[in-house]
Amino acid sequence: MAAEATRIGGGYRVKHPARKSVGFQLMLSARLHRTRMAMLLGEIGLFPGQEQALQVLAQNPDGMTMGDLSRTLHVRPPTASKTVARLSAQGLVERATASADGRVVRVRLSEAGRDKLAHIEAVTLDLEKEIVALFESKEAKRLRKALRKISRHLGEKVDPNADSADLLGDDDSDLDDDE
Predict the structure, then answer these.
(1) Domains of the chain and CATH, by start
(2) What is the pLDDT, as a whole number, of residue 99?
(3) pLDDT category, 25, cuts 50, 70, 90?
């Protein structure tokens, strides 16, 4: 199948041959969502992924080990360590040695980190409102349900031993009804 091209100014804009596939549109939407979220997070001094670390730490007031944090975020330990180092430099998290030999480090939110959560919630809500405004209520609910179904399926293929509830959340009550 030849790619379609549209003349734009002095050049051509080539349309992606897979643009009509579900997978391509899902991937494109995810990329653009991440880019838009990056823009909004940048306004409050954060990079994508940092908000997730802060949100996870907020659920664990006693802190977490770096290993626990990386597993919960579904990232490699060096990625979690780099994120925590950047958040620590901003004063949003505190690190403390949790073992006598100094090898186990626990991370927890600082007061400034707890304050930043309100800004993260506002940014997340703003983007959610932007997206949901594109749909009627029932359409938005069906879309959430379809995306959750895709996530469960792909999650099982990526890690058959993982509990999809960890990734998707425990509460399916808003998605049970077929409308």
Answers:
(1) 19-134 (1.10.10.10)
(2) 72
(3) very high
Which residues neighbour 101 within 8 Å (Cβ) at sequence distance 6 or greater? Answer: none
pTM of the model: 0.73
Q: Which pair of structure tokens corresponds to residue 9?
A: 């100014």
Residue 105's nearest CA partner among 89, 90, 85 is: 85
For 92-146, give the DSSP string. Answer: SEEEEE-STTS--EEEEE-HHHHHHHHHHHHHHHHHHHHHHTTS-HHHHHHHHHH
DSSP string for residues in 20-72: TSHHHHHHHHHHHHHHHHHHHHHTTT--TTHHHHHHHHHT-TT-EEHHHHHHH
Taking CA atoms, 103 is separated from 19, 77, 96, 98, 100, in Å, by 49, 14, 10, 8, 8
Residue 12: pLDDT band by 50, 70, 90 thresholds? confident
